Amino acid sequence: MLQYIETTGKNEEEAINAALRKLGLDRDEVSVEVLERAKSGFLGIGGSPAKVKVSYEVPDAPAPKAEEPKVEEPKAEAPKAEPVEAEAPAAPVSQPNESAPAGDRTEAITIFLTGLMAHMGVSASPRITMGEDGSYKVTLEGENLGALIGRRGETLDAIQQLTSYSVNRGQSKRVRIHVDAEGYRAKREESLERLARKVAGKVVKYRRNVTLEPMNAYERHVIHTALQDYPDVTTYSTGTEPNRRTIVAYSKGEHRN
């Protein structure tokens, strides 16, 4: 179910950030519509703040199940119990992914990816490090791993999503997992950062917004980060997956720290 809130700020970026703080969401988890652009007024008098509409998805509540009428069955006469020797209680069976601490998922990631690589018939092993933000950086090591990357990283993204789903399933606290192979992510980031700066230059020069091609959440995040300090430019995402796009918008006179 789609819901939305409206927020204001000194400029579009501050209005968007105010909404994200209220919702506790990342920028790429929402759609943004600029309702009113900020106006500075004359000599600082008569200005007005920016106003945005931020939409976000909320899972639909499951429909309540209808209670079935209880049918009483005839009670069978219990047989007389024969004396038996008391047995020691059975040891409880531990369930995977039920109570594992959220602080370390390294073993779960290794087990899942090792099995997935074997199923795909690829000779690759995961090397895992922990990021400062608590995320897991996974590098798949091996030879000729192009098949694991796929066109524009689509296969790599799918592996990352499957790993995240498997490792976070049943956990009260989710962790972010980034999967890379043959340095693809770094190369793609450099390419996207060049694209972002090139587009931002055109936006400022012609004072017209530019809508980029559909990108996944990771790629949109790279664009947002690359232009977060670019003068006279703001960015936001719109649309739904898999056709969610980033818009590089002209924002005259707004310099963000």
Detail the topology: elements first, then pairings.
Blueprint: E1 2-9, H1 12-23, E2 30-36, E3 50-57, H2 106-120, E4 124-130, E5 136-142, H3 146-149, H4 154-168, E6 177-181, H5 184-206, E7 210-211, H6 217-226, E8 233-238, E9 245-250
Parallel strand pairs: 5-6
Antiparallel strand pairs: 1-3, 2-3, 4-5, 7-9, 8-9
Features:
257 residues; 3-stranded mixed beta sheet; GMP Synthetase, Chain A, domain 3; single chain; Ribosomal Protein S8, Chain: A, domain 1; alpha+beta; 3-stranded antiparallel beta sheet
The CATH homologous superfamily name of the largest domain equals R3H-like domain
Instruction: Quote the CATH topology of the largest domain.
Output: Ribosomal Protein S8, Chain: A, domain 1
Shape: elongated
Order of helices and strands: EHEEHEEHHEHEHEE
Please give the share of residues in helix. 25-40%
In CATH, the architecture of the largest domain is 2-Layer Sandwich
User: In DSSP terms, counting alpha (H) and pi (I) runs of 4 or more, how many helices?
Assistant: 6
Structure description:
This protein has 257 residues and is of the alpha+beta class. It folds into two domains: 2-60 and 186-250, R3H-like domain (Ribosomal Protein S8, Chain: A, domain 1); 106-182, K homology (KH) domain (GMP Synthetase, Chain A, domain 3, 2-Layer Sandwich). The chain is built from six helices and nine strands, in the order E-H-E-E-H-E-E-H-H-E-H-E-H-E-E. The chain has a three-stranded antiparallel sheet. It has a three-stranded mixed sheet with strand order 4-5-6. A hairpin with a 5-residue loop joins strand 4 (124-130) and strand 5. Helix 2 crosses helix 4 and helix 5 crosses helix 6. The longest helix is centred in the C-terminal third of the chain and has 23 residues, at 184-206.
